[in-house]
Design brief:
The protein is of the alpha/beta class. The protein has three domains: 296 residues, TIM Barrel; 52 residues, Oligo-1,6-glucosidase, Domain 2 (Oligo-1,6-glucosidase, domain 2, Alpha-Beta Complex), CATH 3.90.400.10; 64 residues, Golgi alpha-mannosidase II (Immunoglobulin-like, Sandwich), CATH 2.60.40. The chain has twelve helices and 20 strands. The longest helix has 17 residues. Bound molecules: beta-D-glucopyranose and calcium ion.
C-alpha cells in the first residue's frame, strides 16, 4: 500500500519486555521499572524501534499482572508512577517508543469495583459492571469453560455467580455497561497524557459477550484459533469500542498506536480489528502457529499479507511471547497448531537454536512490523524442567487449561556473570524463577561483540533492516527448488531460506549480507545448509 503515509509503526520492530523477568534493580528477585530503565541503552544498541511492556500496574499478581487492581497505579514490586514517567522519558531520549499493556476484558477481584460489587450484594447496580448471575440450581449460569481450565463461573457467598473467562481472580467486565467504556477511555487518556506511544490490548476479542450469555453447548475448553462463532469472542460489538479508542489515539500528537491481541478464527476476521478507523496492528498468531516447512510458510505469509492489505494495515510477525513456548523449541515440533498449553518437550538445543535463528532472519525480512520477545535475541531456550513448586502460571494446576506451561518462557534474562542470577539482579540474589546452569554462555555479556553469536546476528539484522531491507517494499517470490524459500523486497534485497533437511545450492544472487549459520559461496553458487536463512544485496 505504497500510497499510504509513512508511519513509524508500519515497519517497526517492537520488543516485548516482560517486566518481572527483565532486570531487577532492587534485588528482591523480581524485575522492575528501574531495572528496565537501566537497560534501555542495550535496547537502543540492539536496534529496536519500540518496547511493549507487559502489565506493571497494581495487582495481586494472580496472573502475573494481567489481573489489574488499579489501572493508574504502578505496583510497588515494579516501582512507582515516577519510575514509569522516567522510563518513558529515558526511552524517548534514546529514540525508543513505549507501548503499555491495557487489560480491558477483566480486572482483578481486588479492583475497587469488584469489591464494591461483592459488598453491595445481589441486585445492586454496582454488580452490573461485571457479569453476576444466579445459577441454574446448583450449576453455574451457563456452560462456558475458563481458558485456564474449569468453569468460567465462581459462586460468591450470597449464592450468585460471576463470570471469569480466565482465573477466578480475573472477573470479566460487563462492556454493555456505559461506566466500563467511560472508565477505559479515561484510562487510555491517563497513559497517553503520561507520554506512552500506545497500547497492546489484552484479549481484544473478548470484551463483548452475546446478550443472554447463551450456552455454547459443548463440553470443551476454548481453542483460541478455531473457536469459530462464539458467544464471548470476536463479537461484532467489539469493533465499536475500538473505533471510539481510535478517535482518542488520533487526538494525540505523535502517531500513537494500539495493537490487538485478538484470537479470531480467520485472518480476515483478525484484519477487521485493523480497519482504518480501528486499531493499528493485530498480532498474527496464525503465522506464529505455522509449521516450519516451505509451502506452509509461503502460503501463510501470502495469506497474511493479503488479509492486511485488504484493509490497508501492515502485517505483523512474531514468533515468541510470554504465553507460548519459545520458538527455539516450538519450531522443532511438527504440530504447530496448538501454540500453547502443551507441555513443551525436550529438543536438541543446537538444532533448535539453528532453526530459531533462521526463522528470526526470515521474520525480520518480511514486510510489516516485527514483534520480538525478550531473550530471543540471546537464543534462550524454553526452560522445560521447572519443578512444579516454583511454577506460577495460574493455569498450571488446572490440568485442563489452555496455558499451563507459560513459566518456561518467562525465566529471567541472563545479563552477565557465570552463576545465577547472571546479572538479572545483584550478585547472589534471588530470581523469581530459577535460571538454568547452562545460561552462562547465553548471557548478554557472553555474546556481546562475539562473531556468530545470536545477539550479534540480531544486532546486525536490525541494523541491516534499516539500511538494506526497504521499509514497505513489497515482497516478490522467486522460483526456487523444493524446500527453499526465496523472496525479494524491492529490487536490491533478497532473502533465501533453506527449510529442507539437505543442503541446497542456489545461485548466489549478489553480495552476502548476513546468514543465520555459516554458508559457502563458490564461483557464483552458494551452499546453504538446512535450517539456514541468508540475506543478500542484489
Ligand atoms: C495474556 C495472558 C493472560 C491473559 C489474561 C492474555 O492473552 O497475554 O498472559 O494470562 O490474557 O489476561
Ligand atoms: Ca525488583
Amino acid at each position: 500500500m505504497s500510497d499510504l503515509p509513512p508511519a513509524w509503526w508500519r515497519d517497526a520492530v517492537i520488543y516485548q519486555i516482560y517486566p518481572r523477568s527483565f532486570a531487577d534493580a532492587n534485588g528482591d528477585g523480581i524485575g522492575d521499572l528501574p531495572g528496565i530503565r537501566s537497560r534501555l541503552p542495550y535496547l537502543r544498541d540492539l536496534g529496536v524501534d519500540a518496547v511493549w511492556l507487559s502489565p506493571f500496574y497494581l495487582s495481586p499478581q494472580a496472573d502475573a499482572g494481567y489481573d489489574v487492581a488499579d489501572y493508574r497505579t504502578v505496583d510497588p514490586i515494579f516501582g512507582s508512577l515516577d519510575d514509569a514517567r522516567g522510563l518513558v522519558a529515558d526511552a524517548h531520549d534514546l529514540g525508543l517508543r513505549v507501548l503499555v499493556d491495557l487489560v480491558p476484558n477483566h480486572s482483578s477481584d481486588q479492583h475497587a469495583w469488584f469489591r464494591q460489587a461483592l459488598a453491595e450484594g445481589p441486585g445492586s447496580p454496582l454488580r452490573a459492571r461485571y457479569h453476576f448471575r444466579d445459577g441454574r440450581g446448583a450449576l453455574p449460569p451457563n456452560d462456558w469453560p475458563s481458558i485456564f481450565g474449569g468453569p468460567a463461573w465462581t459462586q460468591v457467598p450470597d449464592g450468585q455467580w460471576y463470570l471469569h473467562l480466565f482465573a477466578p481472580e480475573q472477573p470479566d467486565f460487563n462492556w454493555a455497561h456505559p461506566a466500563v467504556a467511560d472508565e477505559f477511555r479515561t484510562i487510555l487518556r491517563f497513559w497517553l497524557d503520561l507520554g506512552v506511544d500506545g497500547f497492546r490490548i489484552d484479549v481484544a476479542h473478548g470484551l463483548v459477550k452475546e446478550e443472554g450469555l447463551p450456552d455454547i453447548g459443548q463440553e470443551t475448553s476454548w481453542h483460541l484459533l478455531d473457536v469459530g462463532e462464539s458467544p464471548c469472542f470476536d463479537r461484532p460489538g467489539v469493533h465499536e469500542i475500538y473505533r471510539s479508542w481510535r478517535t482518542i489515539l488520533d487526538e494525540y500528537p505523535g502517531d500513537r498506536i494500539a495493537v490487538a491481541e485478538a484470537w479470531a478464527p480467520t485472518l480476515a476476521r483478525v484484519a477487521d480489528y485493523v480497519r482504518p478507523d480501528e486499531l493499528h496492528q493485530a498480532f498474527n498468531f496464525s503465522y506464529l502457529s505455522t509449521a516450519w516447512n516451505a509451502p506452509a510458510q509461503r502460503a501463510m505469509i501470502d495469506a497474511s499479507l493479503a488479509a492486511n492489505d485488504a484493509v490497508g494495515a501492515p502485517t505483523t510477525w512474531t514468533l515468541s511471547n510470554h504465553d507460548v513456548v519459545r520458538h527455539t523449541n516450538r519450531l522443532m515440533r511438527d504440530d504447530q497448531g496448538e501454540v500453547a498449553g502443551k507441555k513443551p518437550t525436550a529438543v536438541d538445543p543446537v538444532a533448535g537454536l539453528r532453526r530459531a535463528r533462521a526463522a528470526s532472519l526470515l521474520l525480520l525480512a518480511l514486510p510489516g512490523s516485527a514483534y520480538l520477545y525478550q531473550g530471543e535475541e540471546l537464543g534462550l531456550p524454553e526452560v522445560i524442567d521447572l519443578p512444579p513448586s516454583v511454577r506460577q502460571d495460574p493455569a498450571f494446576h488446572r490440568a485442563t487449561g489452555q496455558d499451563g506451561y507459560r513459566d518456561g518462557c518467562r525465566v529471567p534474562i541472563p545479563w552477565s556473570g557465570t552463576t545465577a542470577p547472571y546479572g538479572f539482579g545483584p550478585d547472589g540474589g534471588p530470581s523469581w524463577l530459577p535460571q538454568p546452569d547452562s545460561w552462562a554462555d547465553l548471557s548478554v555479556a557472553a555474546q556481546d561483540g562475539v562473531a556468530g553469536s545470536t545477539l550479534t546476528m540480531y544486532r546486525d539484522a536490525l541494523a541491516l533492516r534499516r539500511k538494506a531491507v526497504a521499509g514497505q517494499a513489497p515482497l516478490t517470490w522467486q522460483d526456487a527448488p523444493e524446500g527453499l524459500l526465496v523472496f525479494d523486497r524491492g529490487t536490491d534485497f533478497r532473502c533465501t531460506v533453506n527449510m529442507s533437511p539437505a543442503p541446497l545450492s542456489p545461485e548466489a544472487p549478489g553480495e552476502l549480507l548476513l546468514a543465520s549459520a555459516p554458508i559457502t559461496v563458490d564461483g557464483g553458487t552458494a551452499v546453504i545448509p538446512p535450517d539456514t536463512a541468508v540475506w543478500w544485496s542484489l
